[in-house]
Each structure stands twice: as C-alpha cells, then as structure tokens.
Write a structure and sequence with these properties.
about 350 residues; alpha+beta; D-amino Acid Aminotransferase, Chain A, domain 1; D-amino Acid Aminotransferase, Chain A, domain 2; 2 domains; nine-stranded antiparallel sheet; six-stranded mixed barrel; 6 helices; about 20% helix; globular; binds pyridoxal-5'-phosphate; amino-acid biosynthesis
Length: about 350
C-alpha cells in the first residue's frame, strides 16, 4: 500500500480522481499561464464545438517511479508534437511544446503520492486534452479552447500483462483513407466503440483494423499499433497515413535497430500472409507491449508463437523498453524528462 491507500498490485486501467489537474484557456489568440485545480468537473458552454462536432484531441503518456526514487516522464515532447499535428487537422491552436511539458511536470509533481512504487509494474498515466469551447452553434472552429492535463495511477491495460492476448479482425473501418486516422481525435475512438465491444463479446482482447482502402493489410490493434517479427528476425510494423503514429512503436523501432541490432522495416503486413511472422504484438503507452497470441480472420485463428507464452524477441523488446522507462537502463538522448 502506498501513501494514498491504493492497492498497487490490483491496479488496472480505471479512472480515479487524483488531487490536482492543470487547466489553461485560449482566448483572443493566446493561451493563459495555466493553473492547477482540484476541480475534476469541466464547465463549458452548451454550444461547445467539442460537444457537437467533435472538435477535440487528446494524448496519453506516463510517468514512472525509478529505483532511486526519482521520476521519469517518457518522451513528452513527442506527445506535444503529435497533439500539435492533431490540432492542425481539426483547426485548433497549438499548445506550445514547452507549456505542454511544463503542464505535465506540474501535474506529476502535484500528484506524486499517486505514482505507483518502483517494482509494482504500475505508472502514472497522464491524459492531456484540448477541446473547442465557448458559445457557438454553426459548424465552424470554436471561439475559445481549453487545454487540461489530469492523471491516474494505472497497472496493466490488458489483464495479464505479458500474457498473450487473441484479437479478431474487424469488418469495420476505424479511419478513412484521407480521414483523421493519423490524428488522436475523439471521433476515431467513438467509431471504435462498437467494433471493440463486439470483439470483447467474442472473448477477444480487442479488434484489428485493416487498411480502409483495400482491406488486405493490418493497420491497428484497437488503440495500439501492430508489430511483428518475421521469420528472418526482422522487426516489421505497418506504414500507412491512416494509423496513429505510436510513440511506443517508434521507440521500439529505435530499440530494435540500435540496441538489439535487428533489421527493421515499416511496410505492409498482409492479413493473408501471417505465416511469414514468428511473433506479433500490440504496442502503445497504455498497452506497453501486449503479445498477440493469435489473430482470428474469417473463421480461422492464426497463432503466432504461442497462445500462452510470450515469444523471446517480444520479451527482449519489452525488457529493454521498460528498463528505459523505469530508469534501469540508459535512455537514448532526449527520451526522459527527469522530475
Ligand atoms: C489508435 C491508437 N493507436 C496507437 C496508439 C499507441 O500510441 P502511443 O504509443 O503513442 O501511446 C494509441 C494510443 O495512444 C492509439 O490510441
């Protein structure tokens, strides 16, 4: 038990109110200095574009308690940059990288007691969001915007941690070829609720989306990116303009190439050629690395390494990534903001 009387061993991925969150408003062309508040309710105009037209985006990143008691924030500059790209797509003002990172640091410091202890496997998940607010009714960009960051302590996203999970290929699309798939915007997730629900009803961890143009190539695994290890030992991950550029995935690409000496490739992963791969996984801030046991496509379950055991390459990638995040291994330059 930690100082907040939380049982760190049973933490999953659920909302709990923490002490303070950060809020900043954009009015008349500028963000204010921002402040911390105890209030976890958002008071906005009923005409807010975020409510009617989905003009909003969000991010997800984590802070980790290290063995020496210090705190590691993992690659917040990448989340700031991705939020700026989401804002471009939805005609919203950028939150500058410096203010974004400062907001995250303030929230971590203010909720330090909620950070799961080193060794518990947990972390503090930060959820920045930026939404269109203010009085409005027409389909246009909002007159004002609100940026906030809150946090929750989390454990494993998919129950079982490094235990393989099975996924099912969805008949739905999460994105259109020139749509908003590459932006982290709520509309994509609203559209994923029904496919995700149907997959879970069939006892799968989530669903796999194919490319919306040809429906022949893997794009995403629920709210995570996909990677596989091919029979030549290469790290392979899909490249497409309609998937979200996962910060975890790009970190794994770097780790595979520069630390594990593997060949890497961003390219096509055809759903009817899964035999070419010996291991597969889902990766993301929340999912970390979730080994994929099997993929159900049409009426066949294709099993990769095993439905019960994580594969050896996936485990090495996981150990290296977590070692960097928890401060046990030296991080590549610029990956960690020390708090
Ligand atoms: C649709 C989708 N794909 C992939 C990811 C993984 O991205 P990241 O590694 O930056 O968390 C996420 C989560 O942010 C997501 O929502």
């Amino acid at each position: 038990m930690g100082s907040k009387n939380i049982d760190w061993t049973t933490l999953g991925f659920s909302y709990i109110k923490t002490d303070l969150r950060y809020v900043s408003h954009w009015r008349e062309g500028a963000w204010d200095a921002g402040t911390l508040t105890e209030d976890n309710q958002v008071h906005i105009s009923e005409g807010s574009t975020a409510l009617h037209y989905g003009q909003q985006c969000f991010e997800g990143l984590k802070a980790y308690r290290c063995q020496d008691g210090s705190i590691n924030l993992f690659r917040p500059d990448q989340n700031a940059a991705r939020m700026q790209r989401s804002c471009d797509r939805l005609l919203m003002p950028h939150m500058p990288t410096e203010q974004f990172i400062d907001a995250c640091v303030q929230v971590v410091r203010a909720n330090e007691d909620f950070i799961p202890p080193y060794g518990s496997g947990g972390s503090l998940y930060l959820r920045p969001y930026l939404i269109g607010v203010g009085d409005n009714i027409g389909v246009r960009s909002a007159p004002e915007f609100l940026f906030s960051v809150f946090c929750i302590p989390v454990g494993a996203y998919f129950k079982g941690g490094l235990t393989p999970t099975n996924f099912v290929v969805s008949g739905y699309d999460r994105a259109a070829p020139n749509g908003t798939g590459a932006a982290k915007v709520g509309g994509n997730y609203a559209a994923s609720l029904l496919p995700g629900y149907e997959a879970k009803q069939q006892n799968f961890g989530d669903c796999i989306y194919l490319d919306p143009e040809t429906h022949t190539k893997i794009e995403e695994v629920g709210a995570a990116n996909f990677f596989a290890i091919d029979r030549a030992g290469r790290f392979v991950t899909p490249k497409s303009p309609s998937i979200l550029a996962s910060i975890t995935k790009y970190s794994l690409l770097h780790i595979a190439e520069h630390r594990l000496g593997m060949a890497v490739e961003e390219g096509d992963v055809y759903i009817d050629r899964l035999d070419e791969y010996s291991e597969a996984g889902a990766c993301g801030t929340a999912a970390v690395i979730t080994p994929i046991g099997g993929i159900q496509y049409n009426d066949t379950l294709h099993v990769f390494h095993s439905e019960t055991e994580v594969g050896p390459v996936t485990r090495r990638l996981y150990d290296e990534l977590c070692g960097i995040q928890y401060g046990d291994l030296e991080a590549p330059e610029g990956w960690i903001v020390k708090i």
